[in-house]
Amino acid sequence: MKGNLTMKRIVLLIVIVLLAAIVIKGPDSLIGLAKMSRSASDNGGSLPNVIGKATGVTGKKVLVAYFSWGGNTREVAKLIHSKTGGDLFEIKKETPYPKEYKPTTDVGKQEVEQDARPKLAGPLPDLKQYDVIVLGYPIWWYIEPMPVKTFVEAQDLSGKTILPFATSGGSGIEGSVADLRKTLPKSQVKDGLLANMTGGIDRWLKDNGLVK
């Protein structure tokens, strides 16, 4: 009897959280909740890069660049690109991370501890042409994955606006934004968006002049 009561309380709590998400963020926030509940070992899927169509919907030259391991950040990047226009580019490590979650976290932790700059796969776009780089990644060990640092340090981004967004299993985006500001002191790194729930994306993009 006590076990049934406890289970009912758990179910009620889940319902309250879901309803709160709908009220605060809107129905599409449930997309984010569902995405974060997927297995982190889902390493499949890709999006074709879009290069050569840099002018976004507000006339700014925009690049949505993202690193994704399990697919969550990739889906958010796809959504953001569909709203902003511009170019789209996936940051990929030359030697891919393991497909399993735990080995990947171990490699990621080691790279952070060593302040590593992993080599990236393929040629990078010419970043000098863009006004704004919308930069997406999962939060690993409280900051952005180290391939993202390789990407932003590969070319001179002085004077560029960097607009970070992230997905996370628990950590906020503030630590990675602070880290990016240290890495890119001559760029304008704006406050980021934790995009586990997608309801805030439109307002964030509008506030930063990327949608009308």
Automatic annotation (TrEMBL):
Superkingdom to which the source organism belongs: Bacteria
UniProt xrefs under SUPFAM superfamilies: Flavoproteins
Domain Flavodoxin-like: 61-198
One Pfam family cited in the UniProt record for this chain: Flavodoxin_4
GO MF term (any one): FMN binding
PANTHER family from the UniProt entry: EXPORTED PROTEIN-RELATED, FLAVODOXIN-LIKE DOMAIN-CONTAINING PROTEIN
Full protein name: Flavodoxin
Organism in which the protein naturally occurs: Succiniclasticum ruminis
